[in-house]
Amino acid sequence: MSDKTIVRFCSPTLAGLKVASLFTYKFNNKSQLCRDIRRTNNRLRIKGIKFQILNIFNSLAIIYVYRIDKLKAILEKNDIRNFLASYGYITFDIVSVLKNLSFRMRKNNNFPHEIGIFLGYPLKDTIDFIENNGKNYLCSGYWKVYNNETEALKTFSRYRKCTEIYCKKHAQGTCMEKLAIS
């Protein structure tokens, strides 16, 4: 897995603007993929960033990249815990919830709608997405927005600008570790 791919898909997470990113990665060898994930985790551990494979199908892996402290803070909120409990989540430590999310993803062979919480989307937008079956949204960008459109558009703009800047810096030779803030 190249640093260029990681920077392209995960810049807002590397910059600390976003709790997590998710991307699909085509691989040729599962053992090599696992070695790449371990190597990348070793490189970014000091920055509080972790990579995890959530699902593998055919030769595609769904990679979840998250900031440990930010995800932990989200999972400590009572409204988030109540929401996740309604989907069968029982314990709320990072290892348990990601294991459950991964299981639900593999079981249904698609994205469980609660994944929005794991990506830092607003709880109300995640709930409204589920209740509206992905329809009737105000606008769409990194997620489908049902509430607070103005703030969401500002957030989308920050994420796009961050990605643009990070990709440019990386292309000019700045290594991924330097782009990732602590």
Written account of the structure:
- The chain has a 3-stranded antiparallel beta sheet, sandwiched between helices.
- A hairpin with a 3-residue loop joins strand 4 and strand 5.
- The protein has one domain.
- The protein has 182 residues and is α+β, with helices and mostly antiparallel strands.
- The model has no long low-confidence stretch (mean pLDDT 96).
- The protein contains 9 helices and 5 strands; from the N terminus they run αβαββαααααββαα.
Chart the SSEs and their pairings.
Layout (H helix, E strand, L loop, with lengths): L2 H12 L5 E7 L3 H15 L4 E9 L2 E8 H8 L2 H8 L8 H15 L6 H4 L4 H9 L7 E2 L3 E2 L3 H23 L4 H4 L3
Antiparallel strand pairs: 1-3, 2-3, 4-5
% residues in beta strands: 15-25%
Shape: globular
Distance between the termini: 22 Å
Give the helix/strand class: alpha+beta
| SSE string, helices as H and strands as E | HEHEEHHHHHEEHH
Radius of gyration: 16 Å
Total number of β-strand segments? 5
* Order of strands across the main sheet: 1-3-2
Report the biggest beta sheet as strand number plus sense, adding barrel if it closes: 3 strands, antiparallel
